Amino acid sequence: MIGKLQGRLEYRSTDHVMLMVGGVGYVVYCNERTLASMPNVGEAAALYTDLLVREDLLQLFGFTTLAEKEWHRLLMSVQGVGAKAAMAIMGTLGEAGLSRAIAMGDWNSVKAAKGIGPKTAQKVVIDLKDKAPAIMAMGGSVHDALGQTAAVADDVIDDGDDAGTQSAPQVASMSTQSEALSALGNLGYAPQDAASAVAQASDQGAQDTGELIKAALKLLAPKG
C-alpha cells in the first residue's frame, strides 16, 4: 500500500499531478482544493495517498492531510459513492464544510457536489452521522461542525510589562445552531447559505438562538 509520496512536482493537470519520487513518476488524482494547494512545478511536494485497486485499474488519489484521506475512505464506504464521487464531495465542501454538513444534517450542501443526487447526498449524511466525529477530531474541525468545543488559541499578549493568554471564544451548541438553521430555512434561505452564516455567527461569539439568528441575518443581508 502506498500511503504517502514525497518528492518533486513534475507537472499538474486538471485532475491529477505527477510526483517524481526516487526517479519514478507517480500519477496522483486530486480534487480541486488539493490541486489549488500544490506548489509550483519543479518544487518539493508531498501527498498522502490512497490506492484504488481494480481488476483493470490501479489508481492513486492524493490528499494534503491525513484527515482528508480518511474522509475520502469514509465517503467511499457509503453505498453508491465511488472514488470519483468522494473526490467531488471533498473538492466542493472540504473537510470543514463536510463536517458541518453531516453534523447539521445539511444534505443539500453535499448535493452541491458535481454528480451527487439528492438520494446519495441524504445517504451520506445519514450513514456517516455516527462515524464522522472521529475524523472531524483528526482534522481539528470538530469544534466548527458540532459546536462542542472552543477553538484553543495560546496567543500571548505582551504589552511590555504583562503577559497573558487570550481565551478562545465559546461557540453555540449543536442544538442551538440547528434551531437557528431551521428558523432561517423557514425564512426562505438556502440550507447551504444558512449553515455557513450560522457557523460564522457562532464562531463570532453568538450563543443563544436569538443571537445566532440576528447575527446570521446580518451576514446574509445583501451587501452594498
Automatic annotation (TrEMBL):
Which family does the entry's similarity section mention? Answer: Belongs to the RuvA family.
Where is this protein primarily located? cytoplasm
Give residue ranges for domain Helix-hairpin-helix DNA-binding motif class: 73-92, 108-127
Please state the gene responsible for encoding this protein. ruvA
GO cellular component terms, A-Z = cytoplasm; Holliday junction helicase complex; Holliday junction resolvase complex
Q: What keywords were assigned to this record?
A: ATP-binding, Cytoplasm, DNA damage, DNA recombination, DNA repair, DNA-binding, Helicase, Hydrolase, Nucleotide-binding
> Which parts of the sequence are annotated with region: Domain I?
1-64
Q: Tell me, how does this one assemble?
A: Homotetramer. Forms an RuvA(8)-RuvB(12)-Holliday junction (HJ) complex. HJ DNA is sandwiched between 2 RuvA tetramers; dsDNA enters through RuvA and exits via RuvB. An RuvB hexamer assembles on each DNA strand where it exits the tetramer. Each RuvB hexamer is contacted by two RuvA subunits (via domain III) on 2 adjacent RuvB subunits; this complex drives branch migration. In the full resolvosome a probable DNA-RuvA(4)-RuvB(12)-RuvC(2) complex forms which resolves the HJ.
Give me the ranges of the annotated region Domain III.
Answer: 163-224
Which species is this record about? Nereida ignava
Q: What is known of its domains?
A: Has three domains with a flexible linker between the domains II and III and assumes an 'L' shape. Domain III is highly mobile and contacts RuvB.
**Protein name per its UniProtKB record:** Holliday junction branch migration complex subunit RuvA
- Carries keyword Secreted? no
